[in-house]
Each structure stands twice: as structure tokens, then as C-alpha cells.
Amino acid sequence: WGRAKVLSFWMVYVTTRLFNPTCTLCLRWKKAKITPESLKASLLQSASHFGQVTEVDVREAGKGCAYITFSAIEPAQEMQQSWNAKPCEALFGRYVHLTFVLDVSEECKAAMESGIANVSTEIAVSEVLPGLTVDPQFLTEQEEKELIDFFDQCSPEWNTDLSRRVKHFGDVFDYVTRQVDHTRKPPPIPEQLLPFIARARALNYFTESPDQVTVNEYMSNQGISSHIDTHSAFGEQIAVISLGGGIVIEYCDELHLRESVSVYIPGRSAYVMAGENRYRWAHGIPRRKRDVIDGKIVERTRRLSITIRSNRSRENPCRCSFPTLCDDQLGAPSQLNDIKSSHLREIATSAAVQVSPLSSDTKSNDVDVAPEVEVEHVHRLYDQIADHFSQTRYVGWPQIVSFMDSLPPGSVVIDVGCGNGRYMNPVGHKPIVTLGSDICARFVEICVNDRNFEAVVGDALHLPWRSDSADVVLCIAVLHHISSESRRLALLQELLRVVKVGGQILLEAWSFEQEESSKRKFEAQEVMVPWKLVGKFQSDSNGNTKRPPIDLQRYCHVFTEGEIPELFSKCSGALVVKEWFERSNWCVLVKRTQ
Question: Is the pLDDT assigned to residue 356 strictly greater than 80?
């Protein structure tokens, strides 16, 4: 991937040899339980294999940040090439990312310790992210100023449904359905933009005829969640013209979630996502007030992004090379495209999620009887939202899909809490047996009748499966809906009962610690999280879909680091192979040993 090309040789050579005789690397990793003293000694020993180390500065090991200074550039380059984006033994196998730092001031270090990655402007974008093209001087200063003035003054008015302001031209993109909404007709693509679209097409940046333009305004501390533009909605290329302040865009490989790359996009630039970058790599903008660019702190300023897309016709469905990420190839439901309810266009994803601490008197200590909080805010809730949930949750998480793809042919997999069955379709039709159970009857109906899967209604604490019957048990997004430790232990013991000796359990649950880009910020571990149920999916004997959205409350216990392994330690015959943090979830892989 060429990830080692973080800085060009000559840039590093000049800055380190002429202005500073040393060369400093910043190491970043997911936080680990390790003392700074022991980590410093371990890093010093490991780094010394590459050359003379003048300083190792561990900035509170639990935060996942350290600095290693070499007396020369060559050993720093060698270590960066050898360690970057790979598991590190000194950090218990956590992936570590290394970047060169030109400014090692306390202010810069503090910013990086807070989770802000150091981004190099010298990164070889086309090598690191195949399919991404960046033209840093697409516009002149005068052209940029004229476009900003135009979009500030033109119709329509800025839409404020989102946390950021938006304007649509040509067609409207619906943020709930993630499709083009043909029922609303905004102004056509403005003439003032056409010369720049023609320029992009002349440079082969954009070869399709555009149908839809979205202008987003980003102020300091505003961003957008990581996403891939819907495969079924748009064509082969997504082009963006960036006006105003520069911005850092984070790309995440949806097939290998540990792989991520941050790219700096300056003002007056254009960039195009095509091929692998369009269909495989999710992109997002972290919400923060500053970035670290080439080791220097850069304050964010106002930015406008002009996103240019062509609509995909239903006669030409997406047939990209990434079927597990493609809603067209997964056969995702398309009814949402035809919904005309104005209430569905409420931008549910834009509102900050409110989480409410749960009072202790709503829970029960009876292991065998589900307490009222679970009955009302888990069981009945999912019966009510199952169809809405299924319409919005059809693509499996890539790390789970990858895990399933690694299983040998003939494996028997039981998915506990299977939902709509998004993990029950073997990757590439691999010959493995997948069975599912869920306490929600409507989910099971969707699995059996709509998707032809093998699934039954069953309580996760009283599974309907025989003992020692599965090679692998999945339990995804279930444990956080169980309201007491005794009932959580009962669930884990059931998973261990069903899996064979030597078999594996892959379990994921929501984390108390949320990623910077997450809209959820938990203040307690026992919380209620709203689900906005839109009118289309509300029961109405008269068939009325034009009803306002209603907020329903989901019970969740969100987990802290080490909490799930500690629960498994209380179960006989469970060996926790590893725990890791992924997309605001704690994940554990467990092996049954006896």
C-alpha cells in the first residue's frame, strides 16, 4: 500500500539534517492497560534495534501515545516502515501507527494525545488509497471566492435539519433512506458551477453526467460520520470541490477495519473517489476544532464542500467487486426509495442522540425471568421496530464478515440474536451451515420468509440449541440489552454450552468509551437510547403512513474495557483469546477449553 511514504525522503532529510539533527516519530495505538515505565523500557529496547535513540517520551500509556527520537533520520525511517499499521508485541498485539513529527512542542503533543492524528501533506495518496485522486490547485483564489459568495446568496436557503447547513441542487439526497428523493425538486444544478464540472470532466476526474449536487457547510468543530455513498443510488465516481479552509478526511477500509488513512484536503482543491476508494473505503470528517498537519497545529476555519454525483438507474445495478458492502448485490430492500411521507424526511441521523441514565428500581435480580425494563424496552421495542431496523441494517460489519470468511468449509455457526440475518449469508456462498435465533418473532419471520434462512424464536438465556452443537457462536449487539450481571453471566454460560470444546465465540457489545466521531456520549453505563420510529413503520389499521416520528427508548448497559473478559473469567471453560475496540464496541473472541 505504500503506507510507509508518510514524508518524502528529501523533506525529512532537509528538516532533520539542516534544521534539527534528530528525527522524532509519534506512535499511536488503541489504549492499553500498561504502565508508562514498563512501556518506556520496552519501546526503548525495541527501537534501539534500528539505531541510536536519544529519547523515549511515553505520554500516559493508557492514552495510546508515545514519542521516540532518534539521533538520525535513517533508523527512524526504518522503524516507521517496519512497524507502521502492524501489530506491536510491546503493546499486546495492538496495531500501532507511526508518523514523523516536526514540531514536538507540548501544545502539539497535547493535541495528538487527545486523538488527533498527525497528517502529512506529502502522503502518496494514489498509492495509499487506490482510486482517490486529489488536485490541490483545482481553483484559483478568485474562483474560490466567487463560488463561496454565490452559494451564500443563491436559492434555496440553507437547510438546517442537520447539525451542519446543506443545500441541494438537481435532486435531493435523503439522509434517512440514503437514496435520492425524486419526490422533491430543488433548483437545477447552477450555471455558475457548470464550467468547473466541465473542467473536471476535461481532466478525466469525472466522466459521468452529474444529476445531483450537495453543498455542505462545515464550521469549526463540525464533521460528518464515516460512510460510503450508497452503491445503489449513485454512479461510479463521486467528485468533490473544496472551498475555504483545509480539512482532514479519514478513510477506513471497510473490509479490514484496522486499516485507516488520514488525508489532508486543502482549500481550492478537487478530489474524486472512484473504484476501490468509492466502494470499499468509508470516509468521514472527525468533529474537532483543530488538526495536526505536518506536525503543526492548524485551526479549522469555515469550509464549503460541493459534492457532485450521477444517479444510478435501476436498469444498471451496481456490480462492484465488493459484494459484501454493496446493497444492490446483497438484495437490500428498496421500498424506502418509494416512500413519499414528508415525516420520513426528518433527518433522524442529524439529531444528537440523548441517553438517559436508568434508575435501579426498574431492574430485577431474577435470572430466569426477564425484568420489566427488558420486556418493555428490548423485547417489545424490537417487535415494534423490526421492519424499520431491517431496512436500515442490512450490511454486515466488515470485521464479522471477514471472520466468517476465515472459517473452514463445513463449519456450523449459530447466530444468537440474529436479527434480520445479516450475518447468516455465508461469504461467497461458502459451504458452512448458519442457524439463527432471536427473541423477536418478526426478525425470525424476516429471516425465514423473506431471506430463506434457518432461524427460530429463542431466548438467549434459554437457547433452543443442543449442547456442543456449534463450531462457532456469534453474539452481536445482544449482551448490552441484558440488565443485570447475573443474567449476563447466564447468557455467556449458554453460549459456552452450545459451542463445542475448542470452538469459538465472537461477541460484540456497545462500549461506554465512544469514538470521537460518535454522536453518543454516555454519562453512565445504564442508559436509555432513543430510536426514532418514522411514520412508514408505525402500525395503523387505516394504512396511514403520514404520521410524525415517535421516539422509543432502548435499554442498554454499555461496557468498559475489560468488563466482558472479566465476566467470561467467572465462567468455567472460557479462554478469552483477545479483546479489541472497534467502532465504539468492545469485541471479544473466546475459545471453549473444557
Answer: no
Beta-ladder partners of 508:
476, 587
d(CA 277, CA 341): 33
The HSE-up count of residue 93 (CA atoms within 13 Å, CB side) is 5
pLDDT at position 24: 83
Q: Which candidate, 132, 352, 110, 107, places its Cα nearest to that of 222?
A: 352
Beta pairing class for 212-218 and 303-311: antiparallel
- Quick one: average pLDDT of 495-517? 91
- Please, which residues have CB within 8 angstroms of residue 206's CB and are 6 or more apart in sequence? 197, 200, 237, 239, 272, 308
In the numeric block, the cell 418509494 is attached to 338
- How far does CA 405 lie from the centroid of its chain? 20
CB within 8 A of 469, min separation 6: which ones? 412, 414, 498, 500
Which residue from 395, 434, 440, 397 is spatially nearest to 417, judged by alpha carbons? 440
The residues that bridge with 293 in the sheet, in sequence order, are 119, 296
Give the pLDDT band (50/70/90) at residue 108: low
Angstrom distance (rounded) from CA 247 to CA 224: 12
What's the chain's Rg over C-alpha atoms? 25
DSSP designation for 154: S
User: Cα 208 from chain centroid?
Assistant: 28
Let me know: does 88 contact 96? Beta carbons within 8 Å.
yes
Q: Answer whether 302's CB lies under 8 Å from 149's CB.
A: no
For 215, the enclosing helix (H) or strand (E) is strand 212-218
Residue-wise pLDDT tens digits, 176-195: 667 787 778 889 999 999 99
The model's pLDDT over 442-472, given as tens digits with 9 standing for 90+, comes to: 899 888 888 888 899 999 999 999 999 999 9
What is the spatial distance between Cα 513 and Cα 520, in angstroms, rounded to a whole number?
10
Between the two ends of the chain, the Cα-to-Cα distance in Å is: 42
Predicted pLDDT of residue 366? 60
Q: Is 135 helix (H, G, I), strand (E, B) or coil?
A: strand
What 3 state SS string does 497-565 have?
Answer: HHEEEEEEEEEEEEECCCCCCCCCCCCCCEEEEEEEECHHHCCCCCCCCCCCCEEEEEEEECECCCHHH
Q: Which three cell numbers stand for residue 449?
A: 420468509
Grid cell digits, residue 367: 435470572
